[in-house]
Amino acid sequence: ADEQLDLDDGRWEDIHVVTGALKLFLRELPEPLIPFSHFDKFIAAIKIQDPSLRGRCIRDLVLSLPPAHHDTMKVLFRHLCRVVEHKEENRMSVQSVAIVFGPTLLRPASEEASMAMHMVFQNQVVEHILNQYGYIF
């Protein structure tokens, strides 16, 4: 069903509607932007204590993603970095963006009991990629 969206329609003026639509789109993908196969690797990488080693690991993981995932991530995170640049007006800090998008972009194949524990790390991964955008991409 190829829907034609009229972006001039008044309801798209509300940024929350647009953000909600983006999150819903990302959440309903058959596989998250960070594929299930990479979930544990990203979680393990964000737990590395040494900051430079952690940085290299995450960059290498992002580079190892399938091209469609990598390229979409690059565009999405470039946009999210721009959102963060305006945090004074929109109150969306790196942490806020990570809380909103972490669980959507990065989730385990099965939602098991340790979800709350994962969420902290999911958000940290998104936060790290936002903070290190220039280095990673």
Automatic annotation (TrEMBL):
Record's superkingdom? Eukaryota
UniProt cross-references to InterPro entries, sorted A to Z:
Rho-GAP, Rho_GTPase_activation_prot, RhoGAP_dom
The signal peptide here is: none
The GO biological-process annotations, alphabetized, read as: signal transduction
A GO MF annotation of the entry reads: GTPase activator activity
Q: Name one GO cellular component term.
A: cytoplasm
Q: Where is the Rho-GAP domain?
A: 1-137
Q: Keywords on this record?
A: GTPase activation
Does the entry feature the keyword Nucleus, yes or no? no
| Record protein name field | RHG27 protein
